[in-house]
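thought: fold this chain, then report.
action: predict
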Amino acid sequence: MYNGFITFIGGVGGIVATKPVSAATGVMSWRILFFIFAGMMLLVAVMVFFTKNHPKYQENRDHDTGGILTELKGTAKLAVTPRFWRFAPAAVITQATYVALNSLWIGPWLKDVGGYSPDRVTNLLLACSISITIGYICSGSITSWLKRKFEFKVINSFLVGMWGFTLIIVLITLLPQYGFGLWAMFLLICPFCLVAYPIFVSMFDSHLAGRVQTLFNMLVFIASTVVQSGVRIIIDQYPPAAGGGFSPEGYKTALLILAAINAASLLWYMLYRRKKNEVTY
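observation:
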């Protein structure tokens, strides 16, 4: 649930980055806008710096790690454990797909395949950002409620959400005329991939929590960059559309390949070392 609330704040930032930013550029330059955002981030950094030594946080600090080199060696050891790699492909690929599509490709799809005008695309992206922000709150709350009320494992909530996520990608390619509604539904379900964080923590000793989260985050950002670039490479194999945008067939092929990769990663978790590395959380 706490992860859901934290990511909800990020979702609010995503909302601000759509229509509000578009409106702001009508009264100020991009340079001034970026300076404002940079100042806000600097303020947050200062707040974190001065609160990190608060007694409340000191109580929950990790063991003495022995320095950065020791931490890096410990992270490297985690990277070769079968336990980590039982869940990592599903956790990394689903989140990388969500990050790549949400941050780069939904807007162009709405323009090139959906046929919406740039102003209309901005409004639709605002609606999509609201959808994903609602998903941030709901994913954590629903997962916690199911676990508490029915003893439904968090890993099962992850799997149900990610199979639904994969199915919607397929539906987007088959029913592009309902694209906006399907993208909104896709983003509503996407945040269930974030429950991977507490799942990873549950799989290892508590003093390794920071390292496993760091390793997971690093892989997600590497993979999301690969997905973003991979989608463009696939689309570029098709001639541009008559109107000058990317080919709808290129989008279709790229999304179907992504759906297949996501399905394979989920099957990997369900079949690989199922008895030896059981996830109990």
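thought: worth noting. The chain has a mean pLDDT of 87.
final: tokens above.
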